[in-house]
Amino acid sequence: MPQLQLPLFPHGAVHLTPDLAVLRQDDTVTYVHGSLPVFRHRVGDVKSFRLITSQFYLNGHVQQSDIVRVFGVSKDSVKRAVKLYQAQGPGGFWRTAKRRGASVLTVEVLARVQAALDAGQELSAIARSSNSTPTRSTRPSTPAGCIALSKKKAAARRRPEHPQRAQPHRRRRANGRRRDRHRRARARLAARGWPGGCAV
Prior knowledge:
- By secondary structure, the protein is α+β, with helices and mostly antiparallel strands.
- The protein has seven helices and four strands; from the N terminus they run ββββααααααα.
- The radius of gyration is 35 Å and the shape is flat.
- The termini are far apart.
- The relative contact order is 0.06.
């Protein structure tokens, strides 16, 4: 006749479910199922934490709400970890993310673009000659070593020789409107008998 074995958890363990608990001892986190420890990792090992919690969820031992309740993580982070585990397996948590490299901006292309920028050519014309698109990612005068003209020099080239200054009568008109508003405000205060208001 089978004998029922009650789960025995160490003192201080926090229950995820009636059969599964987690215990922290110094710098180590231990997961206990029944009376046996099933997994252990460091406190700061986030990847191992996401791995084991995703396994528990996919094996049907816990619900996502249990993980959120006990560990205080967001539900979205639990969903992302489960999705990653389903797509790439345990190795997906340690796999380096693929990043797009500068395959177009080789050393030769960078030197050619820099020479064209020094000669004063427009970025769109350089992009057309290089069969590339002048997007925002390549715009700050081409990254990865290209030192284009400074902003002051570029602005000086675009600036006309005799810039048209602001009309003086427009400044006087704006100042007059402000003075009129101040006079009306002081007049209203004086009419109400408030201190600081004076008749004009």
